[in-house]
Amino acid sequence: MKKPQKPKTEPLRIQTLNELGLLDSEPDPQLDRLTEFVAHVFCVPVALISLVDSDRQWFKSKVGLEACETSRDVSFCGHAILGPDVFVVPNALKDERFKDNPLVTGPPYIRFYAGAPLIHNNGSALGTLCLIDIEPRNFDDDDIKVLREVADKVMWEFCH
C-alpha cells in the first residue's frame, strides 16, 4: 500500500479547512442532497464528501457508509487531493497503490473509486466528492465532467 503524500500547500490547506469551520461540523441538508444525487446518478453504493485533515479524512456527508472518518494513511482521497483532476481507480485490486490497502482487502471492499478534489479559490484541495463501488468499473469523460460539476457545487456551498 502506498500512503498518500502531503500536498505542497498543506499548511494553507489545513488553515483553510479550519477557517471554514467544516471539520466536525453538523450535517448540512443541501450537501446531503448532493451526495445522494451522485450516488443515485452513478448507481454506486457509497458516495462521500470527504475532508482531508492532517491525519484523518472526515466525512461531511455520506451515503452507504457507517464510518465518520478513516485514517489519512489509508485514504484514497488523500491521493485525490494531490492534483486538480478527478482521480479514478477503475480496479483497486489491480492498482499497486491500493491492492493491499485495508479498505480494499477488508470492509468496505473498495474496488472502484472516483474522487473530484474540492478546490478552494486559494488553490487548496480541501477534500473530495467521491464515489465508491464494490465492483470494478469504467468512468468515462462524461462521468468525470458530471462529478466535477457537482464537486464545484459542493465547494460553492462550503464558501457561501
Automatic annotation (TrEMBL):
Kindly give the Pfam families that the UniProt entry links to this protein. Answer: GAF
Q: Which InterPro entries match?
A: GAF, GAF-like_dom_sf
Ranges for domain GAF: 26-160
The source's superkingdom equals Bacteria
Q: PANTHER family in the record, alphabetically?
A: GAF DOMAIN-CONTAINING PROTEIN (PTHR43102:SF2), SLR1143 PROTEIN (PTHR43102)
Q: Provide the protein name.
A: GAF domain-containing protein
* Organism of origin: Pseudoalteromonas amylolytica
